[in-house]
Amino acid sequence: MKKMFLPALLVAALFAAAPASAQKKVTPGTEKAASTAYKLQPQLSTLGWLGKKVTGQHNGSVQFKEGDVLVRGSQIVGGTFVVDMNSLKVEDIKEQEYNAKLVGHLRSEDFFSIDKNPTSTFKITSVTPLKGDANGNNATVAGDLTIKGITQKITFPAKVGVKGGVASASGTATIDRTKFEIKYGSKSFFESIGDKAIMDDFTMSFNVIAKK
């Protein structure tokens, strides 16, 4: 009887010493799925800008340098994008000399200080469902935008989706330039500027394509 009792005691001791992870029963589907990074395709993605002033407006483009879109299942859940500020272009002015003059001014300390800040970045912090949008947007995107080394939170509606190994997002974000210390021509800081005033808000229209 004593010989049978000792092996039984040993087996009981081994089960009692088993790691908690080995004993714990995991219900399928309760663990959070990992996200997958889709690589931004700069050659397929576009980023346009529009700035307005009292007497008119100007528009142009900049190019994405690199980035990733984070995908979980069939949903975009995050991402980081780097913009090459040296690629900035003015597209509405055809006269070469005037075009170059405006590009030079936008590159200067009055605006984006591009020599000191050659890139801008945007990091998505949340993507939440949006319903009933008149423009067909299906999500509200929030994130941290960094321009001239200054980071501010922005939120905007977008149309996002994932299909066949491709993640896409498109929309328009409105940005208050004064929050990034771009105050040139702002009526908020120079009240007597009159019809030379430049609006504080400018818009960035984007179409982002990323592949698995």
Automatic annotation (TrEMBL):
<dbReference type="InterPro" id="IPR036761">
    <property type="entry name" value="TTHA0802/YceI-like_sf"/>
</dbReference>
<feature type="signal peptide">
    <location>
        <begin position="1"/>
        <end position="22"/>
    </location>
</feature>
<protein>
    <submittedName>
        <fullName>YceI family protein</fullName>
    </submittedName>
</protein>
<feature type="domain" description="Lipid/polyisoprenoid-binding YceI-like">
    <location>
        <begin position="37"/>
        <end position="211"/>
    </location>
</feature>
<keyword id="KW-0732">Signal</keyword>
<dbReference type="InterPro" id="IPR007372">
    <property type="entry name" value="Lipid/polyisoprenoid-bd_YceI"/>
</dbReference>
<dbReference type="Pfam" id="PF04264">
    <property type="entry name" value="YceI"/>
</dbReference>
